[in-house]
Design goal:
- There is one protein chain.
- By secondary structure, this protein is mainly α.
- The protein has two domains: 30 residues, no CATH class; 204 residues, no CATH class.
- The protein is elongated, with a radius of gyration of 20 Å.
- The model has no long low-confidence stretch (mean pLDDT 91).
């Protein structure tokens, strides 16, 4: 809690004005600058998550989820080897992007609801909007990988990245292991960021934050793979 210097009223740590006398407690942050916030979330996540929570407008959150959806779509095309259903890579990419944008919107709604619900059950102290923004900006490493690493993967393996005959590992084993390992490290980085964001935004302990993130990922993973499997069978 934060004590007002004028009337000594206890206020929420993220309040900008006192609930009793309306005195300013800390600087207002009307909007978030995308590139500055994206860089600082990697450089100084605790301070940046605090700025995100205090900010009046959580700019670019849906944009980040849309890009995450595209990354998730390409991952699903890779995991389920859906390249066998397309003639060329130029046919596959537009579908992966289109599905990804839709998937990003759905993921934003489902993942935020799951995360916020679990956090609240464990004593979390933040709004749904803040939960949404915490998740969105935690995705910055994955979004960075989409922009920087996916093109390298496509140039290296082409259509074979999404097929099983031949498997991309048999074409260039070292490149495949390095690129997949990098993708795994980036995903772990995002998980670490959302854990830090949970500690800061929901004011939970480290253990409860880890449980919140773990349960959310388990529930979301189950929903995602059940839905993807059903669509694959139906297709």
């Amino acid at each position: 809690m934060m004590k007002c210097p004028v009337c000594s009223k206890e206020n929420d740590d993220f309040a900008t004005t006192c609930i009793r006398c309306s005195s300013f407690l800390q600087n207002r942050i009307p909007n978030l600058d995308f590139f500055e916030t994206a860089w600082k979330i990697l450089e100084s996540p605790q301070k940046t998550f605090r700025r995100i929570v205090v900010a009046e407008h959580k700019n670019y959150s849906f944009f980040l989820f849309a890009l995450f959806g595209i990354s998730l779509s390409f991952s699903a095309f890779w995991y389920f080897r859906l390249g066998n259903r397309f003639d060329t890579l130029l046919d596959l990419i537009p579908w992966a992007v289109l599905v990804g944008v839709c998937l990003g919107v759905a993921t934003a709604l489902v993942l935020t609801a799951l995360y916020h619900g679990v956090a609240k059950l464990l004593g979390g102290n933040s709004s749904l909007r803040n939960s949404f923004a915490i998740l969105a900006y935690s995705l910055v490493p994955i979004v960075g990988s989409l922009v920087l690493v996916l093109p390298i993967e496509l140039l290296t393996f082409g259509m074979y990245l999404f097929t099983s005959n031949p498997h991309p590992y048999t074409i260039k084993p070292l490149s495949y292991v390095l690129l997949m390992g990098f993708d795994g490290a980036v995903a772990a980085w995002s998980i670490l960021l959302v854990t830090i964001g949970t500690i800061v935004g929901h004011q939970l302990s480290l253990v409860r934050s880890i449980v919140t993130v773990s349960v959310t990922l388990a529930l979301f993973g189950g929903v995602f793979f059940l839905a993807a499997g059903a669509l694959q069978v139906g297709g």
